[in-house]
Amino acid sequence: MPKTRTLHRLALAFALLLPHTPLSAAPAAPPRTLNGELQGARWRLDVPAGWNGELVMLAHGYEPVGVPQPSPMPANESTASLLAAGYAVAQSAYASQGWAVADAIGDMERLRAHALSELKDVRRTWILGFSMGGAVAVATLERLPQHYDGGVSLCGANLPGEQLANDLLTTLVAFDYFFPEAEGLPRQGLASAEAAALSQMALYQGIAAALQTRPAVAAQLATRLEVSVEALPGTISLHAMILHELAARAGGMPVGNVRTAYRGFGDDKAFNAGVQRLAPAAPAQLYVREKLALTGALKRPLVIQFNNNDPSIVPRMQAVYPQLAERAGAAPLPHVLPAVGEGHCGFTDSQVVEALRAARTSL
Question: Exposed site from 33, 134, 269, 274, fewest CB < 10 Å?
């Protein structure tokens, strides 16, 4: 989730013109901010003095389990620019941390209903999400289109849950194949329960040290995973953390690779013969198929935008949802804006507002 910062919004106002006294600027009324909690999810609602009658439901990204949550809930760093553009902004901290897409959909819907009771006369409602929050935005538009005029997914993990989990598992078993028994990491591999007990820092350090022992193999793995060699340790450790958190939430490993035929790892025959094979836990598999489903069946405008050289949402992931929507006959189809910025969620304030304006022009 992007860092938060204090909102300062200034407006020019004419002062009384006194003899020999120049015109001066006076600050406009500050935004009205409300805070509270709904079924364990802290929330905030910010309303600018010059409210345009439109509400943005802002869905934040992935937050590792155990990260301290300040109270009252601080504003997402994009709040200021949205308020300056005239929008009211409602955001939830979600009732749970981790890969909380399923929880977040319900948390955002309860907050939307509450925000409408506070604001009255809302003319339009939008949902805008970053990273994991992008998946929340897309799933919300699919499931609750009657409540929204459209939405925006920025740097979004816009994949069905099962497909995302399969991608994460591929990363882990590939690393284990090329770097077996890496120092500081469990012999059972990154997909094991022993790895789940390690901190992200311990995972990162063990993975980084192993990659340095075989630079050519690390470069090959980076190419297959579509990230730079420099970003590889962070990507692999993040994939491990998310998959294990998802497994804990779902009640077991949500995907398996018993019948998967892998390609692109060099000697594919040797890789498929030697890679670790895992079976999914049936209840966990059902969880990702149902709770984290995406169908592509859109009925509201959706704008999608990514960043260049994003090590978290790589090109193979970015292509998934537009293809899914086309196969489902979505009307309208998602509007994918050209990539901007660098890294993960590297958007400027103006780019966030422009993406929302692109959704508005689709009406």
Answer: 269
